[in-house]
Structure formats: structure tokens, C-alpha cells
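hiii, so i know i said id send this last week but things got crazy w the move. better late than never?? heres the sequnce for the chain we talked about at the cafe, plus the structure i predicted for it. fair warning i was half asleep when i ran it
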Amino acid sequence: MPKKLLVTGGAGYVGSVMAAHLVAAGHQVTVLDDLSTGSADGVPEGARLVAGRVQDAVTILDRSYDAVLHFAASSQVGEWVADPEKYWRNNVAGTLELLAVMRASGVRTLVFSSTAATYGEPAAIPITESATTAPTHPYGASKLAVDHMIGGECAAHGLAAVSLRYFNVAGAYGRHGERRDPESHLIPLVLHVAEGRRAAISVYGDDYPTPDGTCVRNYIHVADLAGAHLPALDKAPRGQHLICNLGNGSGFSVREVIETACWVTGHPIPATTEPRRAGDPAVLVASADRARDLLGWQPTRTDLAEIIRDAWTFTQSLGEDAR
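okay and structure toks below
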């Protein structure tokens, strides 16, 4: 049955892919985005764009809305160490206001874009939702704080909520892909080198306890990620907070990503080794069993070359001015 939905951060990378999936499924979609990192042209046809911050949801939400999908957040690597207060203000205080607006307007379903960074350095791999949460940087801490807030809102006020903890999102979906400025994610940065826009890719640490010494991450295709949110809208139990990991069940090292990108693009990708970054765990690989069992979700685009190929196709489709 079609729903009326608010998508915060729906002009960004993941949010725009999600908005496109929702429109294609026949839902009525309003995107709320301040366009600080998103792009207006990323909002799909058929969705209404309202330019504004999360707090501006007060001007939009009313009882005619069925649910909110909350993607808006600050998430730049490195910035969270230099400017942690921004993460508490935008991610935590902003969501607190959003929850209050949802309560006042009678909108009682939320799907939240959470993160694997809530787990920090895991004690066991693959990571399950019962793993200890011990984030190692303000971004992960801010998302964990929001998860706690949502749990309280569910228990006290009957919110139905699902937090989806993303592992490394990559790839592209049609005209929707990664184009942050500044860019901080590995795959688009590697592709920048292949394009000749960067001289080399920096590898932060080659002495981790992994097979080749570089960090191992669980990459998930952005279209698979979006596919998990659709059932989450219907599976959220009233008064309960469901938390599910989203990952493809296997990990790839930084060097594997670089080598695969060389093969996909046909271009050399020089790499330089730099010191480790503070807060980078050696391995982050998810168990997505709960998402499979409770949401009926199964990733279908798990091949690293396919993920990189989709990202490369998107990158090549951009004009110089859009890059």
C-alpha cells in the first residue's frame, strides 16, 4: 500500500538512492535536505524537495505522513575528531528535535540510518547486533547516542523504529552515486586516482593483524542497502526498537580494493603508505542474519568488482563541473 514518507537527507548519496527506490515503489516522498553535502539534482523525479535542516521537519510533518526515514547526519572522516561538537549538535540534537516533532504530529514509524561505527573495535567477527558497542570516535558515538534515544522514545511513547547499522556503502544506482566534496571514502578516492584527479591513494596503516596488513571492511552495494529499508517500514513493531546490521557477510582489504579497481578501470592506481588513523578498527565485517530473518532481506550485489564497476560507471558519467 502506498505511503506518505519524509526522507531526511534525501539529496545525499544513500538518501537519494533510497528516495528513488521509494518513488519507484509508488510511495509519496518528501525530501528534507539542507544541501550542505547533498545535491538538488540527486532528488529523483516524483519526489518533492524541501530545502532545510532536520529541525525544519516541524513545518512539514502532520498526521497525513506514515513514516520518516532519517538519513541526515554529519559523517566526514577526520572532521569528527577536529570538530566533535558538530556531530553532537547535528546528529544528536537534530534527531532529538525530529523525535519531538514526530511525537507532536502523530507520526509513529521511523527507519534510522545507523552505522557499524557504533561497535568500535569488535571482539569477534562477524559482528552481530549483540556485540558490545564501544565507538572509537565522535561519529560512532553520536549514532549510538541516537540509537539509545530512539529506544527510549519507543518504550515511553510507542514509536515503531528500526535502526539499520550500515557497514561500508559503495557502488551507484543509475544517476545516483557518491560525489562528496571533500571525499573521504576509499572506493571513490581510488577512482579519483584512476581518473587522474589524484596522484595516489593513501593507505593508512599496513601493519594491522590482517592477511595483507591493511584494514578489512565489509562493502555493501548502495542498491542492496536501499532494498532493506522497504521491508523495514512494515516490520517496525509499535513500541519496540529493532536494530539490524546491513552487510554482505565478507570483507575486503584496502589493498584488495585498490587491485580490483585497477582491474575494473584499466588504469594504474599508485598507493602511498601513511600512519594509521586514530579510531580505525582492523576488521569490520557484519553478520546480517537478523536482517535476513526479520526483514526478509538478502544482498544480491556482493561481488567487489561489480560494486566498483557501478561506481566507476557513475563517476565516468559526471561532467567536469559535477565532479
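btw DSSP finds nine helices and 14 strands in the chain. thought thatd interest u
miss u guys!!
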